[in-house]
Amino acid sequence: ESKKSGRNCSTLFIDKMATEAAELLKLERDISNAIFKDEFFFVLQPLISSVTMEVTSAEALIRWQRGDTIVAPNDFIPFLEESAMIIEVGDKMLTKVCEFLVQLKQRGLLTASFKIAVNISGKQLSEADFIDKVTTVLRKYQIAGHYLEFEITESVALDNLKDTINKINELKQIGISFSLDDFGTGYSSLSHLKDLPVDKLKIDQSFINDINVDKQDENLVKSILQLAVNLGIVTVAEGVETKEQVEWLKENGSMLLQGYYFSRPILPNEFIEKYLISKDEVTTLSQR
Ligand code: C2E
Ligand code: MG
Ligand code: MG
Ligand code: MG
Questions:
Q1: Domain EAL spans what residues (predicted)?
Q2: Does the beta carbon of 121 lie inside 6 Å of ligand 1?
Q3: 263 CB less than 6 Å from ligand 1?
Q4: Strands 69-71 and 115-119, how do they pair?
Q5: Is any ligand 1 atom within 6 A of the Cβ of residue 35?
Q6: Of the residues 40, 70, 138, 194, which has the maximum number of CB atoms within 10 A of its CB?
Q7: Ligand nearest to the backbone CA of 59
Q8: How high is the pLDDT of residue 83?
Q9: Nearest to 287 by CA among 240, 254, 246, 226
Q10: Which of 173, 122, 129 lies closest to 151, judged by CA?
């Protein structure tokens, strides 16, 4: 009896593994095809100044148009990162963002203080010719470096700290700014922060979630905000979803806010329409 169900169980298990392996294979094949078919695109999410409540910049977030469905980065970036494909896809993203900046410039919608933030994977940053690639694309599209910001995570930054610091400094020379993404989720965050020449610190959404609920998270975010002030680094609160969070963050000095409360990531054309042409959207939202 128990032997029989055990056999059934393991047959099911093997079936399940076979199915998963087949799906994985298909996913990997589809991803490499997606590069050739140019199925990756980006959406934009605004960053809002907590002081003026105006949109100061936007983060470009990658999406994959896989047939009829739009796939979120967490479901394919890990596969790209395992192979060298992340480099190709990352380069392409940067090109697409530059093309978009050119479009804004030509339409007279690009103000000097606006920026687009691009997420940069560790594999990209550690490439020997990363800086060459960046300067080449900026020159090709005639875009000044200050229109770009690169988001890196702590794990990437600490991987090869010395090389990272050198590269950041070199790219900062051409005007590109840097932010440390998902701050607080890595380890030894505080000790290395003073060595990293980043301009912004993005407090991970997991801490922002509970600022009005959990006293510990509230204190943690307060001390991160204080630390950033002391280091002269601009803070960004990620994953802001409620009015209460906005009020708390304003009061406690988070300089920039990003999250569904203001906007989900939207298509570039929609972003232009909402935030660069009819600029009153955020004010309307924040007055809800
Ligand atoms: P991230 O850079 O920390 O991006 C923030 C993520 O939080 C985005 O998810 C965004 O849609 C989501 N988010 C924003 N506001 C809210 C909110 O109020 N509530 C909640 N629950 N979520 C919010 P997304 O677009 O799925 O991106 C996930 C991650 O994928 C990014 O995290 C980033 O690490 C990575 N990623 C995205 N685009 C790229 C890219 O072009 N290159 C690389 N290497 N990684 C990318
Ligand atoms: Mg990011
Ligand atoms: Mg983040
Ligand atoms: Mg994240």
A1: 24-279
A2: yes
A3: no
A4: unpaired
A5: no
A6: 40
A7: 2
A8: 84
A9: 246
A10: 122
Summarize pLDDT for 209-234 with one digit per residue, the tens. 999 888 988 999 999 999 999 989 99
C-beta of 175 in contact with ligand 1 (< 6 A): no
Name the nearest CA neighbour of 178 among 117, 130, 231, 226. Answer: 117
3-state secondary structure the chain: CHHHHHHHHHHHHHHHHHHHHHHHHHHHHHHHHHHHCCCEEEEEEEEEECCCCCEEEEEEEEEEEECCEEECHHHCHHHHHHCCHHHHHHHHHHHHHHHHHHHHHHCCCCCCCCEEEEECCHHHHHCCCHHHHHHHHHHHHCCCHHHEEEEEEHHHHHHCHHHHHHHHHHHHHCCCEEEEEEECCCCCHHHHHCCCCCCEEEECHHHHCCCCCCHHHHHHHHHHHHHHHHHCCEEEECCCCCHHHHHHHHHCCCCEECCCCCCCCECHHHHHHHHHHCCCHHHHHHCC
Q: What is the mean pLDDT of each run of 10 residues along the chain (288 residues)?
A: 58 84 86 94 98 96 96 94 92 98 97 97 94 98 98 84 94 97 77 86 94 90 92 95 96 95 98 86 44
- Which residue type is seen at 165? I
* Residue 49 structure tokens: 């100044």
Whole-angstrom distance, CA of residue 38 vs CA of residue 22: 24
Terminal C-alpha separation, the chain: 63
- d(CA 149, CA 199) in angstroms, rounded, equals 9
In this structure, what token pair is assigned to residue 64? 């994959």
Ligand minimally distant from the alpha carbon of residue 261: 1
- pTM of this prediction exceeds 0.80: yes
CA distance linking residue 126 with residue 235, whole number of Å: 25
Instruction: Please choose, from the candidates 31, 58, 139, the residue with its C-alpha nearest in 3D space to the C-alpha of residue 95.
Output: 139
> How close is the Cα of 118 to the center of ligand 4, in Å?
13
